[in-house]
Amino acid sequence: MASTPHDFVLEEAGPLAGVAKTGVNLEAMKQPGAFAKPDGSPLDCDGEDDVGSIIDESSDFVSQVLMKVCEERDLPVALKIGAHRGVNPALKSAGDGVVAFADAGVLARLCSRFPKVRFLVTFLSRNNQHEACVLASKFRNLHIYGCWWFCNNPSIIREITKMRVEMLGTAFTAQHSDARVVDQLVYKWSHSRAVIAKVLAEEYAKLSEAEWTPTRKEIRRDVHRLFGGSYEEFMAKSLR
Questions:
Q1: Dmax (CA) of the chain
Q2: How far apart are CA 188 and CA 195, in angstroms?
Q3: What whole-number distance in Å separates Cα of residue 49 and Cα of residue 103?
Q4: Alpha-carbon distance 40 to 53, whole Å?
């Protein structure tokens, strides 16, 4: 979902045959963060974080290649938004942090500009979660998922899941199998299932108080949607 296959080849005579070449630096495109800092300036690790860029909206690669391929082949664009790389360079790959407030406006513009492209999105900062829910309720081509990295704490999983259920019902994916090392999946799923189950139990209790008793079938349906079913529905629906 998050990576291009190593053997992917875009045929010259394919759907982009009429697109003029613009002198894209192929080697630069391979570098981490190639489209996040279009001005080429280094990350500033002192003081307050800058507003996090998601992608260079004016990039020819984005508009003339990536989005056209995704629309033509009905492939989703997966975005993980909000990492601040190299906060502590001395820790090398373990020195990444989080952008306090990533610019979600870029995501809104992408969803609006490319309505036939599916976007799968998760935010790293707790501060972006409410806006993400609002955007997901406004754009049918946007699906939010998971509690990623620094949000993978039981207290934050509970807060985010509860807010998403209140705002989106079951139209999101509660958690995903993302792990920097395989061992992380062992505890990730055990505590995620326990926390999400408690959130659902509280919501069903509210329904019972309102004299609506959910059936076993309805509960199974909701759990299925939160753990993959909603994503499958999102991928299957027509955006034409």
A1: 64
A2: 11
A3: 12
A4: 12
Name the token pair of 21.
Answer: 């070449």
Tokens matching residue 207: 């329904």
Q: Are 56 and 38 in contact (CB under 8 A)?
A: yes
Tokens of 138: 């406004």
The pair of three-digit structure tokens given for residue 68, joined into one six-digit string: 């056209």
Please name every residue paired with 84 in a beta bridge, in sequence order, or none if there are none: 97
CB burial readout 205-224, b (16+ within 10 A) else e: eeeeeeeeeeeeeeeeebbe
- Burial level of 180, CB count in 10 A (0-12/13-18/19+)? exposed
Which residue in 67, 59, 81 sits closest to 116, CA to CA?
Answer: 67
* pTM of structure: 0.78
pLDDT, tens digit only, all 240 positions of the chain? 334 444 445 555 555 555 555 555 556 555 555 545 444 444 444 444 444 455 778 888 999 999 999 999 999 999 999 999 899 999 988 899 998 888 899 999 999 999 999 999 999 999 999 999 999 999 999 999 999 999 999 999 999 999 999 999 999 999 998 877 788 888 898 999 999 999 999 999 999 999 999 999 999 999 999 999 999 999 999 998
The SS3 assignment for 84 reads strand
Distance CA 5, CA 215 (A): 42
Query: Buried b / exposed e across 19-45, counting CB within 10 Å, b at 16+?
Result: eeeeeeeeeeeeeeebbeeeeeeeeee
